[in-house]
Amino acid sequence: MLRSCARGPQDALRCALPATVPAVCDRLRECAARIPEAREVLAILEKCSKQQCKGDFPIVVFEGLDATGKTTVTQAVKDALDAVLLRSPPACISQWRTIFDDEPTPIRRAFYAAGNYILASEIAKASTQAPVIVDRYWHSTAAYTIATEINGNVQNLPPVQDGVYQWPEDLLKPDLVLLLTVSPEERAQRLEHRGLEKTKEEAEMEANSLFRQRIEESYRRMMNPACQEVDANPSKEEVLKTVLQLIKKHCAL
After folding, report:
1. What pLDDT digit, counting tens, does each position of 96-132 carry?
2. What's the order of all strands across the beta sheet hosting 132-135?
């Protein structure tokens, strides 16, 4: 059974977002008796090295809402840089994603946080061989948690520079984080063309523009590293050109 959390909005937010490996492990252990898959995730996490050291090649993370072009852009950047492409949650646990998506927020976020730490081990290893492109990482976990736990408009979010926007001290950092953004109209059109079943959060974003605004603003407030915003409304060729210029500017390639 999960331990109870304090009732204030900020306390509930910090309870929902376990930001260290021990906190993630504790959360998974608390629900393991009821959710066998939590034991599986915990076992994989506990096998990961606690000291994650990146290699000589850069690590570039792409963030953004669904239908902002992450899949297309990350694949194109991978090909252009002869890089390794990794995604969160990693393949070794992604088959359990739908199970955890139906759980309460603290359990759901523990799954995604665990995925980040497991992915970090894969990133560290891959970065010794080639540049690493990552489709979502910690900032997604944090931004969606903040937007879910805080109601109303963006003025209700924790203030800029609040610790909730900080990168976890024990998680491998990327060299660059690029946030792909598109207009609400363009994103809706892309979602319609994709014709895929919507997640609960995607459905809520469609019904509640304030939820989408809270996610986007949370991304913008992330620190150490911050997200660099990229306008993904233009053609995929133009977006790729912009992204490659930013990578060349900020990373040793």
Report:
1. 999 999 999 889 999 999 999 999 999 999 999 999 9
2. 84-87, 132-135, 59-63, 176-181, 228-231
Q: Which residues contact 218 (CB under 8 A, 6 or more apart)?
A: 142, 143, 146, 147, 157, 165
Of 165, 145, 143, 147, the closest CA to residue 156 belongs to 147
- Of 8-12, 22-26, 44-48, 157-161, the poorest mean pLDDT is in 8-12
Give 252's pLDDT tier (boundaries 50, 70, 90): confident
For residue 221, give the amino acid letter: R
Q: Which of 205, 204, 208, 216 is nearest to 154 (CA)?
A: 216
Beta strands, E only, the chain: 59-63, 84-87, 132-135, 176-181, 228-231
Beta pairing, strands 132-135 & 59-63: parallel
What's the CA dihedral at 161, 20, 131, 238 to 10 degrees? -40
Distance CA 152, CA 217 (A): 13
Please, are residues 206 and 67 in contact by the beta-carbon 8 Å criterion? no
CA dist., res. 205 & res. 231, Å (int): 20
Amino acid at 18: P
